[in-house]
Amino acid sequence: MNVKNDIKVIINNKQYTISGYESEEYLQKIALFLNSRYAALAKEDGYKHLDEKHKNLMLQINLADEYYKMVEKKEDLEKEIEERNKEIFELKHELISKKEEERGKKRK
């Protein structure tokens, strides 16, 4: 059974304790990811003029945007895999048919 981890992390220059059943390394990775997103937003011109509430909202909007783009990309890749699997199936079927056809010619 997994053990729940409680670790202290710093996100956007504030210390938090986060908990989860994932490893401490994974939870630190999440904090690092969030910090990288805050840092990227901080480079935007208008971001520094926003209050804390709107800065957090901007981060949430950007994360949601990134999430939905990744979901769309995943779905596109799944469709591509499905199409390739169908193509492989058809090619295998064609190959088997050709081999059977050749065996039939050799028997005659």
UniProtKB/TrEMBL annotation:
Name the record gives this protein: Cell division protein ZapA
Gene Ontology BP terms: cell division
Q: Which InterPro entries match?
A: Bac_CellDiv_Activator, Cell_div_ZapA-like, Cell_div_ZapA-like_sf
Keyword Cell division part of the UniProt annotation: yes
Species name: Catonella massiliensis
Asked if the Swiss-Prot or TrEMBL record annotates the protein with the keyword Signal, the reply is: no
Q: What keywords are annotated for this sequence in UniProt? A: Cell cycle, Cell division, Coiled coil
Q: Which residues form a coiled coil?
A: 67-101
